[in-house]
Known about the structure:
The complex is a heterodimer of chains A (296) and B (275).
Chain A: H1 2-21, E1 36-38, E2 45-47, H2 48-53, H3 69-76, E3 83-85, E4 90-91, H4 100-111, E5 117-124, E6 127-134, H5 145-161, E7 165-171, H6 179-198, E8 203-211, H7 213-216, E9 225-228, H8 239-246, H9 257-262, E10 268-269, H10 272-285
Helix pairs in contact in A: 5-6
Chain B: H1 9-16, H2 24-31, E1 33-38, E2 50-57, E3 60-67, H3 73-78, H4 86-102, E4 106-112, H5 119-123, H6 126-139, E5 144-153, H7 154-158, E6 165-169, E7 173-175, H8 179-187, H9 193-199, H10 204-209, E8 215-217, H11 228-246, H12 252-261, E9 268-269
Parallel strand pairs in B: 3-4, 4-5, 5-6, 5-7, 6-8
Antiparallel strand pairs in B: 1-2, 2-3
Amino acid sequence: MNDWFAARRQRMLRLKVRREGERPFTPRLSAAAPVFEQCPRCRAAVTRARWEKNRLVCPECGFHRPVGAYRRLSMVLDPGTFQELDPELAAGDPLDFPGYGEKLAGLRRRTGLREAAVAARGRIGGLPVVVAVLDSRFLMGSMGVAVGEKIACAAETAEKARLPLVIFCASGGARMQEGILSLMQMGKTAAAVTRFREKGGLYIAYLTHPTTGGVTASFAMLGDITLAEPEALIGFAGPRVIEQTIGEKLPAGFQRAEYLQEHGFVDAVVPRDEMRDTLAKLLRLHQKGGARRDAE
Amino acid sequence: MTQNDAIPAARRVALAREPGRPGVSGAVQALITDFFEQRGDRLCADDPAVLAGVGLFHGRPVTVLGTRKGTDLEQNLACHFGMPTPEGYRKALRAMEQAEKFGRPILTFVDTPGAYPGLEAEARGQGAAIAACLARMSTLTVPLIAVILGEGGSGGALALAMGNRVLMAENAVYSVLSPEGFASILWKDSARAQEACELMKLTAADLLELQVVDRILPEPPGGAHTDPAAFWRTVDTALRDELRRAEKLADPARHRQRRFRAMGNDWLSAGKETI
Lengths: 296, 275
């Protein structure tokens, strides 16, 4: 019986991955869709099958292409263990911002996402975990009320179930269209992950391209362990704003994952093909102590 | 509320940025006795854009924290016009730790366009410094009352403003980003800042309605800078009252967590009927 459910979930996950996965890169999903896709950096022509197999990392130059939330989950979770949390959660339009409602509706249609974050329970290397993923295709993964709530709920679910928490960050920062309430989500998420950590929970922040603004200045920088994808842009202020302020060009590699590691803010820069094993190892290392310590 | 009710948001932004606007240094002079300023983050530097110290508020020891713009050009430059660096936030963090240790309530006074966006600020972890302040404020067991005095710009303001109660001067503004930045991001045109002001819900009255702030501090007609003494009397009365109430909270940390946990949740929906 259990197997049957697992198989069904796996199928559902696969379906979701298909539904959202192929869209951002190939708008035309017909028989005429190109077999090759150019690497955005080195311009190498790579077959779509090869992109898939290589987890959207260029086999020629190692460029890490952005990964959608469901696809990321399918890459890290053990097959058939995906259980989405609060899948219907969404927020309104507190500023009555012109065109915001239509924009959200359009993005929901195009991406198959309901909001810029997806949270799920599942297993990595056999160990149970709560994972939240931000998706940069949805308004740059910006944090409005719904994203803040997803992150807070994920931390609370992990706290109640005494599971470790992994958050894949990818965000332009606070969502402008929801105004001050987006800013307040920094307080909400920072408090939620802090409470979880104080109760002994292990929180791994996984920073992917880009992680900036209010997300960097809240839950992204509060991990017990902080990992980053190669060359991911990570910072508080955007490079353009900084260039305007200081009136000069920024050095190459500034605010990239490797730079953050060099300056002491990232434990390890982990290429995508090592992502799953690294997480599994960290979860194993914290099996006793951290994640399951009885608090209170 | 007061006779100033009809002032447009853009005018409030101008008033909030008025060069003579009362700031944290004024607050210390007017409200605090026996003040002792604490300097430095104990890591590498002292950022004058954040003022930290201990003093007496009506005879009660309190920790005072605030962002500072400076009063002449030299100070303005040293303070990056009120934009703290990571060193400033780490000094604030140190002051919070001490307030916790010695059981002192914290009063914060915010007037900043935002955290400083510079190369070195990034290299030293501006985001991490702000995040650390937010995390610490969420667990402090002493009461924290925040006052938005002038500009409350972005994460750089929130980093000192996760209060059990948040008070806001009538002509202060508090927003996710400056109106210029907002217009530039959303419309690629910072010249539309005026339009942004009206849309952003950044005035004290708007934020009271959104339950982001709890109390508005009325200003003299023409703005707080026209009669600072009168303004500080208002602030003094309000803070005494708020502090008395906050000190009765059974669990200030939990109270703060709940307050921020609820932010924006009126707009949430778990169903299919959203916009």
